[in-house]
Every structure is written in C-alpha cells, then in structure tokens.
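To: structure desk
From: M.T.
Subject: fold request, one chain
Message: Could you run this one when you get a chance? Sequence is below, nothing fancy, just the single chain.
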Amino acid sequence: MRPIISRSFITNSFSNKFLIRVTAFLLAAGALPATTHADQYPGGRPIEMTVMFGAGSAADVTARYLADGISKLLGVPVPVVNRTGGGGAIGYSYVSKQKPDGHSIIWNSNSISSTYHSGVLPFDYTAFDPVARVSLETPAIAVRADAPWKSLRELIAHAQSNPGKVRIGNSGTGSHTHFSAAALFTSSGAKVIEVPFGEGQAIVNLLGSRIEGVVQLPAALVPHVRNGDLRVLAVLGSARDPVFPDVPTVAELGYDVRLDMWRGIAVPKGTPTPIIISFRAR
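Reply: Done. Structure tokens follow.
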C-alpha cells in the first residue's frame, strides 16, 4: 500500500528530484574542502536523523520514508532516533550540540518556534542551518466513529454546553497539535481539557474511550479512518487536505484558524555557509 503523507514530497516515485537535491546538500555538508566532498562524504559513516516525537507518530512515519530514500542514494545507514520530550526541546538540544559535519541531521518543523516561544527551549531556529522544507501537513480533529458528534459544530456545541468535560488529546505540551487544538477551541469559545500524550498515544487513548477527540496529523489518522474506527470532523489547515478531500477546513465552518504544519531538514549551526548557498542554487 502506498504511503499517504498529507501534501508531502512523498509519492510513488519517492520524489527523486527532491532526494537528489537533499543528496547534493548532504554530499556538501561535511567539513572537508568543497572539491573533495563528493568523493569523501559520507565516508561510509551513518547519518543519524533525530525525530522529536514517538515511533508511529506522523513525524516518525514521514521521517522513516525519507531516511530510507537517503540511505539508498548514499549507500550508508540513516538510522532514525526518536528523542522525545518537551515539545521537541530534547531533540533540538541534542542535535544543536553535534558536530556540523553532515552526520547528524534533524527532522524539524514549526515546533522550533513554538517550543522556543513557550519558554521550553533556550535558543531559536538560528541554532540550525536549514536545508529544505520537505512537507506541508494539515492538523485534523477526529473522534471515534461511534461518537455521537457527526460534525465539528456538533462537537463544539457539546463542549460549550459541558465546559471542562470534553478531553482533546494532542502530541504533547507545546506541540503543533496542542497549539492547533487550543486555537480552535479558544476561537469557538468552548472550554475543553487539553490532554498531552507522548509516543503516539493520543489515538490509542481515543480508541480506548479515555478522551473524546484528538488533533493529529493525517499520517497518524489514515489507518484508523480506513479501518472505520475514527471519523475526521475537520482539518485545521489553510486548505482542504487531499487525503481527506471531503472534510471541510475549520475556516469553512466559520472558525478563523489556519495552522499548516511544515517539516524539513536542518543541520547544526556551522555547516559551511557557501556550500549551503550552493545547494540552494541548484
């Protein structure tokens, strides 16, 4: 079955053009003289990719497809290491301290800014050198398929009538799904309980009826929607998601929330600037 990643670079062909560009950067990202990078990088050494959320999460699923493609092109292992916690703070802190030689990369996202402005991270995006944006995904709000709410308006009306009794799961305090859910329910005037989960446990808890809904990214929701276990009520991005083409945006429903999630690759600060500029010009 072909992987479905919302508005992502991943397709049946694995977006060879993008991967060639990523490879061109990675070949250039080491500390060797520019004229010898292509010959010596990666030198048989693994390239470790840090993912800041748990195995099975949307971030993890996408990262592993990307890592597999880079590994095939470069001929070295690209292990994905899940360094979770603090809305991404643990992963960002780890990679920021690594040698800028192209062997430690991070699968980053909007979370670099949200985590910093939450006061959890002592540095911002300038601690990294950006490589490329890879995907654009839309958070979605989902409930169990047997839930009584058939639409977002029905769920919000229930939450408004029962303040503090509706529990909405997210991927962790300070995560993009946390802020997306908070923005939606704040704009609607409904008071809900935001429940942070780690290691991809939000959906597990929803399936177990321990919470009433989740805000997650499509990659994590698709298998459960296909199985008939979950129903997606709306997406919180700037446009409808191709994965759920019949599902409205919350903006269409009258709530002024447009919160796309971008993901990309970054490397520790100090990767040679002329080489990064050369990569961008390709």
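Reply (cont.): The domain at 16-137+262-280 is CATH 3.40.190.150 (D-Maltodextrin-Binding Protein; domain 2). Let me know if you need anything else for the meeting.
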